[in-house]
Design goal:
Length: 287
């Protein structure tokens, strides 16, 4: 799928130069991917930082040098041809924006599910209360200078889980995040998604985010949304007592959180975690 992702980037209708940096993480770089055209070049490098997704992204950012913009594209996702053109237009017109996202098309189990961006601007409070999955990392186009303001991708997040959410929150504190509503990236949700069943990593990473971003503690609804995800992951791990402890905390803080009943059903083995997740994915949703 890497070559499909690469082709979709090289076929952008953007009139300017696009320099693609393919980062190989814990694998030998494939130099056959390289090309050196004037407007479309491909460089292949190895991840020289912390092994994993966050370090790989940072290796690419640092390799980008004096580029004005930096975009991410996961190796199993693809871009529609006008993606970069539309995003650059938005950032050129809005000096206060540090990042631009787009809507997405989710491809799951042979079904294409369009998910247009629900907003034109993502603010910090909205992101706390709603991860806004349409703002997927494969839609990100950063103004390169924003990394000087907020720092690189966090390499300390357990397993690199939610590193994209963390950078969204950090950027939203200091800059506007603009959103092109049109779906301009195709996101492939496979049954073997890298993070789908790494439940212990989910628990550790989400607790890390709650501690790192104190704003969650000042917004009961936002905090309990994340706690609901933790409760579901604990239930998937079979840790029934810990699940009910997390659910109890949710009920005391924000009983309207919609994930805790699902966590309880999984903990009681009424439904499996895989089945619950598959049903959510079938409608283009996560848990």
């Amino acid at each position: 799928m890497l070559r499909s992702a690469l082709d979709s980037i090289l076929q952008q209708d953007y009139a300017g130069q696009i320099d693609v940096i393919v980062v190989f993480d814990q694998a030998d770089p494939d130099r056959s991917l390289e090309q050196h055209d004037a407007l479309r070049s491909v460089r292949v490098i190895a991840n020289t930082r912390t092994p994993g997704l966050s370090g790989a992204r940072n290796s690419g950012i640092l390799e980008s040098g004096d580029a004005e913009y930096v975009a991410f594209c996961d190796d199993d996702d693809t871009w529609l041809p006008r993606k970069i053109t539309e995003q650059v237009t938005v950032l050129v017109d809005d000096d206060g924006a540090g990042l631009c996202t787009t809507g997405i098309v989710i491809n799951y189990d042979g079904r294409a599910i369009p998910r247009p961006s629900p907003v034109d601007v993502l603010d910090h409070r909205t992101l706390l209360r709603d991860r806004t999955p349409e703002a997927h990392s494969s839609t990100f186009l950063f103004r390169r200078s924003v990394f000087d303001e907020v720092g690189l991708i966090d390499e300390d997040i357990p397993g690199g889980y939610s590193e994209d959410y963390d950078i969204l929150l950090r950027v939203a504190r200091v800059r506007r995040i603009r959103c092109v509503r049109t779906p301009l990236a195709t996101i492939h949700w496979g049954r073997t998604s890298y993070f789908q069943t790494r439940w212990q990593t989910t628990v550790m990473a989400q607790r890390y985010l709650l501690e790192k971003h104190p704003e969650f503690g000042r917004d009961r609804r936002a905090e309990c949304r994340v706690r609901g995800q933790i409760a579901f992951a604990l239930a998937a791990l079979g840790e029934r007592r810990s699940t009910f402890r997390e659910v109890g905390a949710i009920l005391r803080r924000w009983p309207l959180e919609k994930r805790w009943p699902i966590a309880v059903l999984v903990a009681l083995r009424v439904v499996s975690a895989d089945r619950a997740l598959a049903l959510a994915h079938r409608f283009g949703r996560g848990i």
